[in-house]
Write a structure and sequence with these properties.
A: about 325 residues; alpha/beta; Rossmann fold; 2 domains; 8 strands; B: mainly alpha; nucleotide-binding (chain A); AAA+_ATPase (chain A); P-loop_NTPase (chain A)
Chain lengths: ~325, ~220
Amino acid sequence: MTPDSPRPNPHGGAGPSGGAGPSGGAGPASGWADRFADELLRLGVQPPRARRLAEETTQQAAECATAPDALFGPAHLYARHLITELNTAALNPTALNPTAFNPTALNPAVPKAGAGPSGGAIDPGDVRLRLTGVGKRYRRRTIFAGVNLTVRAGEVAAIVGANGCGKSTLLRICASLTRPSSGTVQRTRRVGFVPQDGGTAGWLTADEHFTLFGAAAGVAPRRARSTGEHLAGRLAWRPSRDQLTQHLSGGTRQKLNLVLGELHSPDLLLLDEPYQGFDQGTYLSFWQQILAWRDAGKAVVVVTHLLHDLQHVNQVHDLGATA
Amino acid sequence: MTALVVAALSAREVGRRRVALALMVTLPLWFYLLRRSAEGQSVRMLALGMAWAVSALTLFVVNAARGVDPRLRLTGASTLAVIGGRLLALTAGGIALAAAYWALVVADQRPERPWAAALMMALTAVVAAPLGSLIAALLPRELEGALALLSICAVQMLADPPTLVAHLMPFWSLRELGTYVIDGADAGYLWRALLHAALTWLICAGGTYALFAWRLRLPRYPEP
């Protein structure tokens, strides 16, 4: 196995295509390999290397007498997964056995952590969000002023503070949904925003939300649904095809919100107390998911008022008491 | 493509609100039945009922999407795709409704110019959808929007046709077309109606776009 040889995807079997029968013949395996190689190319991998990875992946599936989609899951998701793993190793070489993985062997054409599909390489730990002297006033009332915050790739930042101190407003400023009254904001282009509540259409199903948000991001409907169902699986949720969002429990609706925020693979995730209504197991899965995003080189900003959340984060910004 | 997906899903959303949809679809029928004995009045009232139904439906659909639209913009959709897709769905639904009521009018009243009656019905739907979205853009809360639409329809119904107020109403074109369809008036009525409808559509659709482009604008932050 070469240093960046494909490894079976832990999510593969649970993926939406995971139910495909074993060894579907050359046709399905070849189609999967083509889609896999196409996605690698889209992610910035050079063509010879993409072909080689595709061949190795299908070969590995053949050795297991299993169809690639049954072993690795949907091709495009596994391509992203593989790139993420390679980038994680590049960010944190000690995370992998150095004898089994040599970061210098990586092709420089492979985007660094969190690089967008445009393929622009970004150094690990680059700044994803920088607030300098940001303030917000509503008429004569100052909500907050002089907020400085820098969040880098592979970091989780928490925004804490009393009710009404402007945590959600600050997050909306980061997302560019609200304009700051003062200060400057610099942030990466691809951002995912998960509101505290709302943000979904009650008369649509989860699948239709995936289609809608996928279309907004330029993703084909079938692929958006497949990605959405896969991401939902990570939160221990299997969306029902005919259940309307308004009939989902509050916690499940928040899971949908989380999936929608992540659907287009943003480099920066802005989460406004997204765990409301989560049961204990989902709450733990949620934090595991945040740590997985962090390890994959994404920057995460989470608004919270739960002090025990803070053990998971790299930095805490306290907006203080109510202004 | 985004606009088409928005249109398809908006249509699906509306289709699932069966009771509201049934009430909206039957609303013009009551307008028609109450004036059925008077040929000209019944068709004009039917058109006004359709205008009220389609614009109210659009108002509620646009308002219901208020929480989703900013997220769609942030994900990459353009304002034109989001607003245009929704208007496309509701205009298409309105035209389907217009076709059904046109069939009723042709079967029940046998107007002299059935094609003009079809134009009248279709134009009603085409103008009503952007009017509803403009009201939704101006008045984000549903109650205020519904009351504003009620006011417009009431003034439209009660204003004396020759007055300036009647000419300024969004559905004045229906009165003119009604005269052309039912009373056999000259083609001047038809052209004035078309011009008025085109202007109204431009003002309503353009106003909706301008307001939502401003409301859903995303400042371009520089990359760090």
